[in-house]
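From the methods appendix. Each design record in this collection lists the tokenized structure first, followed by the designed amino acid sequence. Records were kept in a plain field format so they could be parsed without special tools. The example shown here is representative of the layout used throughout.

RECORD:
FOLD TOKENS (187 positions):
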């Protein structure tokens, strides 16, 4: 019986070892995410918030204003801040206060960081739907609708000069996907 327990224990130890190796637990970003916790607001350093702000240049945050908002957030009376337990709701409510607009935008961006890579792995596992197992490239005829030509928009042509649109019936390809050829007769 002890051999079974030892085998199960070894399995779990190896699984945890692989998980610890795979997860970026020593990432500075993950270590700095305690800024999201309202209870740790007095422990936040301006350098941490500035460092996190630099990770999101698309937000266009002003580092000086971000530091100033952090200071205002830290010295604000706790009665002035929302009394919300959920972090996402807390920062949503804080964002309504103009004094903390950039700080709240940064915190909301941090909350949008995916918690796992499951969605991207799910996307890649769907490759069987668009790839033939014997071919290493995506077959466009499986997911594209083919158009031979496209008629100009109605606003650019008058009723008398517009060519009639002739549609061919849908054709089922060998892959089971309908392919429609739209033909426009020349004007």
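DESIGN:
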């Amino acid at each position: 019986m002890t051999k079974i327990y030892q085998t199960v224990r070894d399995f779990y130890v190896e699984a945890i070892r692989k998980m610890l190796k795979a997860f970026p637990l020593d990432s500075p970003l993950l270590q700095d995410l305690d800024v999201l916790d309202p209870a740790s607001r007095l422990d936040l350093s301006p350098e941490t918030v500035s460092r996190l702000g630099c990770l999101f240049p698309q937000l266009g945050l002003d580092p000086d204003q971000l530091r100033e908002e952090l200071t205002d957030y830290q010295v604000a009376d706790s009665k002035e801040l929302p009394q919300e337990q959920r972090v996402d709701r807390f920062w949503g409510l804080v964002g309504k206060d103009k004094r903390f607009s950039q700080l709240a935008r940064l915190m909301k961006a941090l909350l949008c960081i995916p918690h796992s890579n499951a969605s991207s792995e799910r996307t890649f596992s769907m490759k069987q739907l668009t790839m033939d197992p014997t071919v290493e490239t995506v077959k466009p005829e499986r997911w594209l609708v083919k158009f031979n030509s496209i008629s100009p928009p109605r606003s650019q042509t008058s009723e008398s000069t517009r060519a009639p649109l002739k549609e061919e019936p849908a054709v089922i390809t060998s892959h089971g996907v309908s392919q429609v050829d739209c033909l426009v007769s020349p004007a």
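APPENDIX NOTE: The two ends are 86 Å apart (CA to CA).
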